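Subject: sequence -> structure tokens, single chain

Hey, anyone have a minute? Need the predicted structure for the following. Not urgent.
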Amino acid sequence: MTTLELKGSLMNLIAKIEDENMLATCYYIISDLFINDEKEEKELLSPDQWKELDAAFLESDDERQMISHDEVKNKFSKWLK
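Reply:
Had a minute. Here:
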């Protein structure tokens, strides 16, 4: 698909949405893409958030910190329906 075709298809999909909540969700998702695309990577998170993210990344290397997929599914099952 060309860029113009993609834009037209996206506009057609959005035009078909009748549910206001779904439309608002789409708007925020697309808005976030533009906002995040326009910012420098370091502006997206504060220094404290970067430290926390780095710590979480390092923790993810420790097998003892891991949770099984089944355990996560069970814990969050009411949101996964």
